[in-house]
Write a structure and sequence with these properties.
Length: 251
């Protein structure tokens, strides 16, 4: 297994080499790079795919608690890996919480990012009832055999502790009014695409309108919304999303 150091901690990553076009896949909250295993055949023939387990997740070193600005810190972890590997320009595809990490990385270091794709995230703000629904859903999921199996597959035997720490970090965003982006999103200076599904039960009901507002505010962006599919879109609409990603990145 391969690791790099980030602020004294070991973070796991893996490279799947097929060509010289780097594509980083960034996992969502309570998940790990394991979530991409079944999707890799859709991407590895076209890109040099790099996956990462964010600090405290998957095969990476554990931490007492997640950072206060968790998604910004995950963006910094991504930047540290880009620099560790010596890349000049890379593409980022983040899903769910990983979308926030990808956008934060692009806002922080646009010189390192070619294009960024944000899949299945809630937008600039959290929708009403988001945190109460999250806490309720997490409690139910931790007692659901299938959800528990997914957590264990991604995280290992200590998955309960990780899910609880992740939930605490997300609750802090609401309680302390922490913005999801460390820098204003309107300052995003790289080409980007926003992906989502109208049926996504975890995101705001007006997701398409929120995405359109982002593009109007930021400019130079594209939107891909699917009528069907659960959370996240890159899993529930796997082949369609992979094709659209290739078209966007190869254009």
């Amino acid at each position: 297994m391969t690791y790099y150091n980030y602020r004294g901690k070991k973070i796991y990553f893996k490279e799947y080499a097929s060509n010289d076009s780097p594509l980083f896949l960034l996992h969502g909250n309570t998940a790990s790079s394991a979530m991409f295993e079944l999707l890799l055949p859709l991407y590895t023939p076209y890109f040099k795919v790099i996956v990462i387990d964010f600090l405290g997740n998957g095969k990476s070193e554990r931490t007492q608690e997640f950072a206060k600005e968790m998604w910004y810190d995950q963006g910094l972890q991504t930047i540290a890996l880009i620099e560790h590997l010596g890349f000049n320009k890379v593409n980022l595809l983040g899903t769910s919480g990983g979308a926030y990490a990808a956008l934060n990385a692009a806002l922080e270091r646009p010189d390192l990012i070619n294009k960024v794709i944000a899949d299945s995230f809630d937008g600039r703000t959290f929708h009403k009832g988001w945190i109460s629904g999250l806490v309720r859903d997490r409690k139910q999921a931790m007692n659901d055999p299938l959800a528990s199996q997914f957590y264990a597959w991604c995280q290992g035997d200590d998955w309960r502790d990780i899910v609880e720490k992740d939930t605490e970090a997300l609750v802090r965003y609401i309680e302390e009014d922490i913005p999801p982006f460390h820098h204003p999103l309107k300052k995003l200076d790289v080409p980007y695409m926003l992906i989502g599904s109208k049926e996504d039960e975890l995101l705001r009901d007006d997701l398409e309108n929120e995405y359109k507002e982002i593009v109007r505010d930021v400019g130079h962006g594209f939107i891909e919304i699917y009528c069907e599919g659960k959370h996240p879109a890159m899993l529930s609409n796997a082949e369609e999303v992979a094709l659209r990603v290739r078209q966007f990145l190869e254009f």
